[in-house]
């Protein structure tokens, strides 16, 4: 039987040559040797820092990671407590403690960044033996603390910028221009402080940059255009029922301000000031009638004050809304409960009290009781207003002369002789007032001259009073109101007292006084008194005299009419204290 065999059938088998085994052995041996050397190199390098390495100047090369960390901690341990002096040009300086800005070295991260770390990487082995270098320590900073400190340094070492401002005053609106300043450059400061912390220097110079104000010129101009100038352009009128409270810019300027907010100036209204201004022009209870008073020597209408009850918020809201308006639109109605005055501001203006129409002055010798009594009477009379048709009564105006009413005891004339009583000297005020009335051209209703003549008064033109029956009265028979102004300059031991009464109105009459010669003289008698209140007195003769009041319409030469005053003075009897001679 024949078997099929392939082409190589019958050929002898090949054998491996001895040299191949040797090569393989050598290769294996070399690999073993290389592996052993690499392992030895790894054993040397381990997690050590590459040879020759320095971290911020501290040599840590060849140290294990833990050794390098310890070395850095020892080298920089004191730095955390050592302040760093920072300064800017111009000599301004301050100290910064690393702890207050959270400045510290991350020692582990610094060593790792220097190349420490266990690795079988050939590059790692190569770096250990050949890669030593100088590296900076890894520094940590608390950004919040650093920002706060840099802001503090800017305030202390820099020049703070000045915001522009708008200022309200009685004379209008003033502008304070913005001024740029200087601030510490935060990025440069952080870098410089960090370098100083890591280095040997304990002083570092900080760079400053321009610091622009939050409120610049454009912001100021916008504030002027949008609020300040319109607000101060004209008066604001608040309407309470039929009454109006007109507030001028110079009055409410103190209630206005503009404050910085979000990089711009915004209006601010002082509500208390606005409310106080309105309350000053109104009353919370009964209304107050208008009147006329002398202000700096001239009559001035004092407006009526309505009785008004309102909510401050309503007043401030209307007032604020009107500040931006112009012209007639600067009037607004305020919700309120209003009680109007009986005598309005218009009524007061219609009185026509515009100028001084008469004045008269008398003098008196020194006496303390006269200073008290005449001064008190002047105080009560001063400011009296007579409306057209009204009658003035001195007794009604001054009241009873009592200690409770402010008067003291002094000499009075009773039954032709001097006696002590409350109110002595008030007749001086009566005489002065009578003469002011006389030259104002008012209607004489009631007056009585002294029973005997007193030489400090004009003869035939004087008056005495006594409570309650003897009075001085006159009527305002003009179409205008009359304001009476009374003043007293007290006497001293070396000077006479001065009494002046002025009347203000609209001038109607030019008055001339004509006084006759004295006539019908009468000799005085002599009285002997034994009463305890006797006051000795040297008498003088009585006489008659006539006074003519000549009326001319104001500015005219022609006499309009005249008025006669006849006065008959009794003799002033001589008074002797003691019994008559024939009674001895």
3D architecture notes:
- It is a single chain.
- The chain has 584 residues and is an alpha+beta fold.
- The protein has 14 helices and 36 strands.
- The strands form 14 sheets. A four-stranded antiparallel β-sheet has the order 22-30-29-23.
- Helix 2 (65-76) crosses helix 3 (107-113), helix 9 (271-281) packs across helix 10 (312-323) and helix 12 (368-381) packs across helix 14 (426-440).
- The longest helix has 28 residues, at 18-45.
- The N and C termini lie far apart (219 Å).
- Keywords: Membrane, Transmembrane, Transmembrane helix.
- Pfam families: PG_binding_4, VanW.
- This is YoaR-like putative peptidoglycan binding domain-containing protein.
Q: How would you summarize this macromolecular structure in one to three sentences?
A:
By secondary structure, the chain is α+β, with helices and mostly antiparallel strands. It has 14 helices and 36 strands.
């Amino acid at each position: 039987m024949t078997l099929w065999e392939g082409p190589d059938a019958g050929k002898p088998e090949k054998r491996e040559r001895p040299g191949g085994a040797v090569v393989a052995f050598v290769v294996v041996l070399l690999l073993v040797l290389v592996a052993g050397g690499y392992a030895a190199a790894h054993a040397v390098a381990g997690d050590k820092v590459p040879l020759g390495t320095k971290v911020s100047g501290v040599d840590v090369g060849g140290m294990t990671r833990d050794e390098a960390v310890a070395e850095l901690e020892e080298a920089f341990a004191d730095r955390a407590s050592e302040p760093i002096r920072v300064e800017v040009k111009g000599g301004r300086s301050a100290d910064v403690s690393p702890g207050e800005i959270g400045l510290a070295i991350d020692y582990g991260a610094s060593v790792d960044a220097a190349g420490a770390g266990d690795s079988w990487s050939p590059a790692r082995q190569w770096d250990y033996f050949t890669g030593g270098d100088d590296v900076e320590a890894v520094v940590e900073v608390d950004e919040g603390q650093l920002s706060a400190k840099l802001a503090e340094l800017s305030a202390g070492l820099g020049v703070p910028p000045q915001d522009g401002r708008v200022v309200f005053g009685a004379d209008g609106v003033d502008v304070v221009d913005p001024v740029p300043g200087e601030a510490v450059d935060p990025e440069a400061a952080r870098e410089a402080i960090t370098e100083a912390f890591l280095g040997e220097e304990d002083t570092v110079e900080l760079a400053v940059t321009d610091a622009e104000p939050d409120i610049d010129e454009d912001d100021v101009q916008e504030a002027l255009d949008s609020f300040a100038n319109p607000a101060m352009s004209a008066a604001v009128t608040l309407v309470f029922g039929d009454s109006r409270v007109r507030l001028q810019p110079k009055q409410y300027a103190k209630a206005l301000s503009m404050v910085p907010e979000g990089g711009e100036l915004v209006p601010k209204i002082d509500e208390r000031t606005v409310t106080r201004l309105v309350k000053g022009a109104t009353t919370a209870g009964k209304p107050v009638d208008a009147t006329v008073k002398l202000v700096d020597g001239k009559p001035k209408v004092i407006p009526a004050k309505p009785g008004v009850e309102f909510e401050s918020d309503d007043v401030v809201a209307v007032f604020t809304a009107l500040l931006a308006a112009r012209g007639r639109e600067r009037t607004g109605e305020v919700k309120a409960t209003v009680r109007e005055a009986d005598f309005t501001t218009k009524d007061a203006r219609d009185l026509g009290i515009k100028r001084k129409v008469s004045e008269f002055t008398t003098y008196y010798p020194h006496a303390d009781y006269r200073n008290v009594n005449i001064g008190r009477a002047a105080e009560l009379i001063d400011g009296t207003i007579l409306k057209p048709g009204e009658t003035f009564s001195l007794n009604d105006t001054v009241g009873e002369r009592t200690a409770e009413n402010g008067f003291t005891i002094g000499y009075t004339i009773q039954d032709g002789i001097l006696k002590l009583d409350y109110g002595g000297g008030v007749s001086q005020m009566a005489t002065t007032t009578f003469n002011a009335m006389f030259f104002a051209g008012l209607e004489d209703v009631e007056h009585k001259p002294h029973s005997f003549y007193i030489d400090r008064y004009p003869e035939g033109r004087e008056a005495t009073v006594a409570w309650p029956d003897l009075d001085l009265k006159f009527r305002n028979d003009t179409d205008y109101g009359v304001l009476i102004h009374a003043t007293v300059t007290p006497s001293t031991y070396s000077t006479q007292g001065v009494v002046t009464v002025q009347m203000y109105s609209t001038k109607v009459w030019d008055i001339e006084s004509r006084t006759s010669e004295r006539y019908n003289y009468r000799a005085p008698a002599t009285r002997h008194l034994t009463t305890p209140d006797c006051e000795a007195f040297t008498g003088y003769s009585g006489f008659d005299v006539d006074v003519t009041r000549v009326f001319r319409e104001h500015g005219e030469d022609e006499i309009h009419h005249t008025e006669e005053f006849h006065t008959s003075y009794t003799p002033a009897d001589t008074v002797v204290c003691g019994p008559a001679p024939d009674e001895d």
